[in-house]
Design brief:
- Residues 166-387 form the Transposase IS4-like domain.
- Keywords: Membrane, Transmembrane, Transmembrane helix.
- InterPro entries: RNaseH-like_sf, Transposase_11.
- With 429 residues, the protein is α+β, with helices and mostly antiparallel strands.
- The protein has a domain at 1-116 and 368-429.
- It is 39% helix and 23% strand.
- It has helices spanning 6-17, 19-23, 37-49, 55-63, 79-86, 91-107, 186-201, 217-225, 240-249, 336-359, 371-395, 406-419, 424-427; strands at residues 121-132, 141-145, 148-161, 168-173, 207-210, 229-234, 256-262, 275-287, 296-311, 314-328.
- Strands 1, 2, 3, 4, 5, 6, 7, 8, 9 and 10 form a ten-stranded mixed β-sheet that branches.
- Strand 2 and strand 3 (148-161) form a beta hairpin.
- Helix 3 (37-49) crosses helix 11 and helix 6 runs parallel beside helix 11 (371-395).
- It is globular, with a radius of gyration of 24 Å.
């Protein structure tokens, strides 16, 4: 495939994922609208594919012809009409669109080889959307900061971990609890999210990876109840499980060890020196954990990291050591190295995948502070991100090897909207 074009993207999402038919089902609560719901849906999805930063930017694109060739002969909205629609948007067709994409991706064997070492691994992480001292709504969470009340929105996201494409399986919102001092926590929402994903998609993953917040019996039991395994980092040394395991491990040598060479960025590479990680692993199963009927496995990893530290022209070789503790329901048929890779890849998604949502896709921006609009916008964003990633990783071959960034591909799609005749409705039939 040569240079990817907007026409190729639209044809792909229509032929493979049936997005055109799903767009026609878009609905909102406006009476006798002058702007069709399907038009609002098209504009929002394309806006997020183009990584719009605000509704004002979308209004500029509409005003100055960015959508003129895409929607010829169609009355285009202005930002007030978009806001009115979003505040009354019917979320059910959007949820069906998102669920359909995940179902089709599974049927198309996107995850057939797994995402890591043959397993489909997903990560859970809390994502703060935005915060304000001025605006609030009925669904805002609150916290005290520097003597002031801050209102914010937060959710929990579930994303595939390991190989590309990283697909967002779902995002659930934390809600305030009426009449109670504490709002919903990440654990509560995380458990609800995986149950909802299981109800919709059944076996959506083999392994669920979480941070130290999820080291508790109810979460592990919920994961086991849906036929999946958990890999969770542990930080609390006071847990009886941790004390028992560390006490056992201190009297014996590591069960296995391995080394990894991680090339440094080319701009900093001198004399071809590389970052070197040596990992020692202590691994034992059969530990009891309060509230968990079946025994669990505990792994202790000690990482010795040797790397270059640059200060001007001077290069110093520095060695640091850190420990990582992991509790998992996976048996010893899964090598310790694979468990270590799962927990590290989960950090990679947190640092790159979830961080990318904020830095590239602007998930942290408050496009519109209204409970229904916030949910609709997040759904539009999730659908657009998944479709974009599925397109570039399934249809645009070797773009990374050629040094092409995703930001460049997004810019190319924006340019195509202006330079090429791309009638959107014809492509989405």
């Amino acid at each position: 495939m040569g240079r990817p074009t907007l026409q190729q993207l639209l044809t792909y999402v229509s032929k493979v994922y049936g997005i055109g038919e799903k767009i026609k089902r878009a609905k909102d609560g406006r009476k006798d609208p002058q702007i069709m719901e399907s038009t609002i849906c098209c504009v929002m999805l394309l806006g997020f594919v183009w990584r719009m930063k605000s509704l004002n930017q979308l209004n500029q694109w509409l005003k100055y012809g960015r959508f003129k060739k895409l929607l010829p002969g169609v009355r285009l909205p202005r930002v007030d009409a978009v806001r009115e629609s979003l505040s009354q948007y019917d979320l059910e067709p959007l949820q069906e669109m998102h669920d359909g994409i995940i179902h089709k991706a599974k049927r198309n064997k996107v995850f057939q080889q797994g995402t890591m070492n043959g397993w489909v691994v997903v990560g859970l992480d809390g994502v703060e959307l935005f915060e304000s001292k001025v605006k609030n709504c009925d669904e805002c969470l609150t916290r005290e900061k520097d003597g002031e009340t801050h209102d914010f929105h937060r959710g929990v996201a579930c994303m595939t971990v390991g190989s590309d494409p990283h697909v967002i399986l779902g995002i659930d919102h934390m809600h305030p609890r009426d009449g109670e001092d504490k709002d919903e926590g990440e654990q509560t929402v995380g458990k609800r999210l995986i149950r909802n994903l299981y109800d919709t998609h059944r076996h959506f993953a083999d392994v669920i990876v979480g941070d130290a917040l999820y080291v508790n019996a109810p979460f592990i039991n919920d994961v086991r109840a849906i036929g999946m395994d958990a890999v969770i980092r542990v930080k609390n040394k006071r847990l009886h499980l941790v004390q028992d395991a560390l006490g056992l491990f201190q009297h014996r040598e590591a069960d296995e060890h391995w080394s990894i060479k991680d090339p440094e960025p080319k701009a900093k590479r001198k004399k071809q020196k590389q970052k070197h990680i040596h990992v020692e692993a202590w691994d034992e199963e059969g530990f009891e954990m309060g509230g968990v009927p079946q025994p669990v496995r505990f792994l202790r990893f000690r990482e010795t990291i040797t790397e270059n530290k640059y200060r001007g022209k001077n290069v110093k070789r520095v060695e640091t050591t850190k420990e990582v503790w992991v509790v998992t329901t996976l048996g010893k048929h899964v090598p310790a190295k694979h468990v270590w890779e799962m927990i590290h890849e989960r950090w990679d998604v947190e640092n790159n995948g979830f961080r990318e949502l904020k830095t590239k896709w602007n998930i942290h921006h408050c496009f519109m502070h209204h409970p229904r609009a916030i949910e609709a916008i997040l759904m539009f964003m999730m659908i657009a991100i998944n479709l974009f990633h599925l397109f570039i990783f399934r249809r645009v071959k070797d773009f990374r090897k050629k040094g092409i960034t995703q930001s460049f591909l997004v810019e190319e799609l924006r340019i195509d909207a202006v330079l090429q005749d791309v009638p959107l409705y014809a492509l989405l039939e």
